[in-house]
């Protein structure tokens, strides 16, 4: 009898549990079904709120506020009207969050809020700048200022992020806004169709809505003068900026990295930018996107200006603006996109506070450390030679040189080659001339004594290790002058490079 009661009790509990589970499933299904209906309703409301295509030709003409643009089509007008409503707040925020859902999960809701409230300025809206802008808008940045004087051309279409044939002849800033409003209508765009230059910097980088200062600036300029002016201004005014170096003639996306301006290498734009900034006292502190890819046999190079172009008049008259480049840069259409997305990625991580952990210069730091060790060893050896071989004299000897100095000398001054033969392997740095006086600098006494070498960057020359052994034997610890060891052309070449070094050295 008791067994029957137990079984009945168990069966009753099972039935109750099953009933509860079934009820829970029905309730959950009802809730989820209701949420789906709500979501569909919001989407339907959004679609219904999209303005219908109009036949009013006057309305179509009103969309074109840039005299150089072609007449807008009906789709442009619809996007423009929807964007006007979205930017006024008439757009379901839940739908925006759904569109940004993947970013929100990655960056956290707090990080995405920072991004949505950020104000970013992109200077240069060509291949690099357009891809950067598109990525930032799609990722959630809601206030974007675009600065570019140029118009879309047919040759722009191989690398521009959003330009179509219909955009040829329209300002690049307007093209970006028109196309991106169809994707992210809530983004506020501030268009400045003009060339960036130092005297207009205060106005072009001024605060925008409610006095908000730029949270980040993207330098996507391919002209040296304006690029340097922008970076110098941002550096002096503590405005976060990232600079894109040359994508022209590059083909290997695996060699594109982010590093400090002091370590960027292997393209003329970054080299010239570094040199100009050094003369202005800016030697570090600006993140850059650059490629470590080297030129080689069969690779694209800067095309020379055809002779027939010279016959048309002064070279400066051939450009769209005075002193602006007129030669054609060979560009693989994929590479500016990689540069632009890399810059956008850096801005997104920086604004949201996401950890940045870049690999330093693809291992080149080790090369610079090795060169610094070679200079240290060379100074110790020379000091012992000059003091009669006393090993104690070099204990604790320091050299006033850093790995950044090594990078500058090798990459910027000597172009990664021996100044003697032009070879690129097994490089080292050592003094060019034997010092006439002691190289030892002493401060303090006893246990507080500090010993250092007086070596300067303008004393050092780049050569192969084999050439260095000969140079050390015949010049530094021998009796000869460089003029007795090398031909006149080599001596003049080295002396010229050392003079260049001396000009920049005071800005270290």
Automatic annotation (TrEMBL):
Domain THIF-type NAD/FAD binding fold positions: 102-357
Bilayer-crossing regions: 14-34
Annotated localization: Mitochondrion outer membrane
Coiled coil: none
UniProt-listed Gene3D superfamilies: NAD(P)-binding Rossmann-like Domain
GO annotation terms (biological process): cyclic threonylcarbamoyladenosine biosynthetic process
SUPFAM superfamilies: Activating enzymes of the ubiquitin-like proteins
Keyword Membrane found: yes
GO CC annotations on file: mitochondrial outer membrane
Molecular-function GO terms, alphabetical: ATP binding; tRNA threonylcarbamoyladenosine dehydratase; ubiquitin-like modifier activating enzyme activity
rRNA-binding found in the keyword field: no
Membrane topology of the entry: Multi-pass membrane protein
Alphabetized Pfam families for the sequence: ThiF
Keywords carried by this UniProt record: ATP-binding, Ligase, Membrane, Mitochondrion, Mitochondrion outer membrane, Nucleotide-binding, Transmembrane, Transmembrane helix
InterPro entries: ThiF/MoeB/HesA, ThiF_NAD_FAD-bd, Ubiquitin-activating_enz
Annotated family: Belongs to the HesA/MoeB/ThiF family.
Role, per record: Catalyzes the ATP-dependent dehydration of threonylcarbamoyladenosine at position 37 (t(6)A37) to form cyclic t(6)A37 (ct(6)A37) in tRNAs that read codons beginning with adenine.
Name of the featured protein: THIF-type NAD/FAD binding fold domain-containing protein
């Amino acid at each position: 009898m008791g067994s029957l009661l137990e079984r009945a009790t168990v069966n009753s509990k099972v039935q109750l549990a099953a009933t509860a589970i079934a009820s829970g499933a029905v309730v959950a299904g009802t809730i989820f079904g209701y949420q789906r209906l709500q979501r569909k309703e919001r989407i339907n409301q959004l679609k219904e709120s999209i303005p219908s295509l109009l036949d009013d030709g006057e309305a179509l003409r009103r969309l074109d506020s840039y005299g150089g643009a072609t007449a807008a089509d009906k789709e442009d007008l619809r996007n423009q009207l929807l964007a006007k409503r979205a930017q006024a707040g008439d757009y379901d925020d839940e739908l925006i969050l759904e569109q940004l859902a993947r970013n929100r999960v990655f960056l956290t809701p707090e990080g995405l809020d920072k991004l949505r409230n950020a104000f970013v300025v992109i200077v240069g809206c060509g291949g690099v700048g357009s891809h950067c802008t598109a990525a930032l808008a799609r990722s959630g940045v809601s206030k974007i200022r675009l600065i570019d004087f140029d118009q879309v051309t047919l040759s722009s279409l191989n690398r521009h992020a959003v330009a179509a044939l219909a955009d040829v002849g329209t300002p690049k800033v307007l093209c970006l806004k028109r196309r991106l409003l169809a994707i992210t209508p809530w983004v506020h765009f501030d268009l400045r169709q003009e060339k960036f230059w130092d005297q207009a910097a205060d106005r072009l980088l001024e605060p925008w809505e409610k006095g908000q200062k730029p949270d980040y600036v993207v330098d996507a300029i391919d002209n040296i003068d304006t690029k340097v002016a922008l970076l110098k201004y941002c550096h002096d005014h503590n405005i976060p900026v990232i600079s894109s170096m040359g994508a022209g003639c590059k083909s290997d996306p695996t060699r594109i990295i982010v590093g400090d301006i002091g370590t960027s290498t292997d393209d003329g734009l970054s080299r010239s930018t570094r040199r100009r900034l050094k003369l202005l006292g800016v030697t570090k502190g600006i993140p850059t996107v650059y490629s470590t890819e080297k030129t080689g046999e069969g690779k694209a190079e800067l095309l020379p200006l055809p002779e027939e172009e010279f016959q048309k008049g002064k070279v400066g008259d051939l450009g769209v603006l005075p002193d602006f480049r007129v030669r054609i840069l060979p560009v693989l259409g994929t590479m500016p996109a990689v540069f632009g997305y890399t810059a956008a990625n850096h801005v997104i991580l920086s604004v949201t506070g996401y950890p940045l952990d870049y690999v330093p210069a693809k291992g080149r730091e080790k090369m610079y450390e090795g060169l610094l060790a070679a200079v240290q060893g060379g100074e110790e050896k020379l000091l012992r030679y000059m003091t009669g071989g006393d090993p104690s004299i070099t204990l604790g000897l320091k050299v006033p040189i850093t790995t950044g100095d090594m990078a500058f000398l090798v990459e910027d001054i000597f172009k990664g080659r021996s100044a003697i033969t032009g070879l690129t392997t097994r490089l080292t740095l050592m003094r060019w001339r034997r010092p006439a006086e002691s190289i030892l600098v002493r401060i303090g006494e006893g246990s507080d004594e500090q010993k250092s070498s007086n070596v300067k960057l303008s004393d050092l020359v780049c050569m192969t290790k084999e050439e260095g052994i000969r140079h050390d034997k015949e010049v530094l610890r021998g009796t000869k002058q460089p003029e007795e060891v090398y031909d006149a052309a080599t001596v003049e070449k080295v002396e010229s490079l050392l003079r260049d070094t001396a000009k920049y050295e005071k800005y270290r």
